[in-house]
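[INFO] parsing input record for Sulfite oxidase-like oxidoreductase
[DEBUG] input buffer:
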Amino acid sequence: MGQPVERESGDRSSGERASGGAEQPQLPPGQRLQRGWPVTHYGPVPKFRSERWEFRVFGATADGEKHCWTHEEFTALPYATVVADLHCVTKYSMLGAEWGGIPARTILEIAPPAPGVTHVMVWAEYGYSSNLRLADFASERTIFATHKDGELLTAEHGFPLRLVVPHLYAWKGPKWVRGVEYMTADRRGFWEERGYHNIGDPWREQRYSYQEEPGDGPEL
Ligand SMILES: Nc1nc2c(c(=O)[nH]1)N[C@H]1C(S)=C(S)[C@@H](COP(=O)(O)O)O[C@H]1N2
Ligand SMILES: [Mo]
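[DEBUG] output buffer:
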């Protein structure tokens, strides 16, 4: 297998981009505005089969148990919305989407981590993963989205569930997410092992692992 690359396909239909710069103060440095919503991911789009789907919280849970929800149970959890932008590290941003779903905080409340937990690994279909500091995951704006702008996510955008972490680059938000692992030490996820920054703050332009400073992430 060669080096994986983010593949973008699909809706560039209206393809224009705004001019950026001073009139776009909400764009992080180096990003350009994308109209429409491209599809970007590595690998195939998984097929959803509700009878095989479960959401799991495992690893260092407070009670030492694994917690599982069926699709029906998970989507019955209290629904909330967050308006947030999506910043792809390949330099386009989509602004002002309304994401609807289950806040990450709800999961932390109903399946709390053990006291020593510092990071989480968010797991998706086909083994895609991304690591987050517990504080990033616990942000009141981090949400497991089932909907965007009031409509169910489409398959290519992550149906039935994707994570949205508004203050980090979009690779930190797995589509087709299936669970969360509570960790007592940091470990790199899929892209973080392959050259992306361990933290991924777009406002600090933390794109690549070579930009990391001591303490930003585990040894590569
Ligand atoms: N499972 C999975 N989730 C993923 C990815 C991926 O490759 N696999 N790519 C990420 C990246 S790099 C981006 S930019 C966004 C793109 O989301 P979109 O296709 O809905 O625009 O999904 C993120 N979530
Ligand atoms: Mo991306």
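[INFO] The first helix runs from residue 71 to 75.
[INFO] shutting down worker
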